Automatic annotation (TrEMBL):
Species, as recorded: Dyadobacter soli
Pfam assignment, any one: HTH_5
Domain HTH arsR-type: 1-90
Coiled coil location: none
SUPFAM superfamilies in the cross-refs: Winged helix' DNA-binding domain (SSF46785)
GO molecular function: DNA-binding transcription factor activity
InterPro entries attached to this UniProt entry: ArsR-like_HTH, HTH_ArsR_DNA-bd_dom, WH-like_DNA-bd_sf, WH_DNA-bd_sf
Taxonomic path: Bacteria, Pseudomonadati, Bacteroidota, Cytophagia, Cytophagales
Transmembrane stretches, start-end: none
Protein name: Regulatory protein, arsR family
């Protein structure tokens, strides 16, 4: 069974997070993206492929170059997950605090 990559897999890698950050400033080609990294152009292309599979990057042909562009709205999945997790944990901590307060009074 082939597993579909998701946004969480994409942002798990620091190199991919830095690529997303660079692309958030505007579209770039693979050579421009790779300028700040001490890895090969092929390694950058693999990271771009993963980001593309996750929907965080779209690639288009401009003349002879492939240009990458960030789709930052896909990161809303992460924001939604963090928001829901925060609500869950805040609720649990409030219940724990109430329990501890009740225990102290006894």
């Amino acid at each position: 069974m082939i597993e579909r990559r998701d946004v969480f897999q994409a942002i798990a890698d620091p190199t991919r997070r830095m690529i997303i950050h660079k692309l958030s400033q505007g579209p770039l080609n693979i050579t421009q993206i790779g300028q700040d990294f001490a890895i090969s152009k092929q390694a950058i292309a693999k990271h771009i492929k993963i980001l593309s599979e996750c929907g965080l990057v779209i690639m288009s042909q401009k003349g002879r170059q492939q240009v990458c562009e960030a789709r930052l709205d896909e990161l809303d999945q992460v924001t939604d997950w963090v928001t829901e997790s925060r609500k869950l944990w805040n609720n649990r901590f409030e219940k724990l605090e109430a329990f501890l307060d009740k225990t102290k009074k006894q």
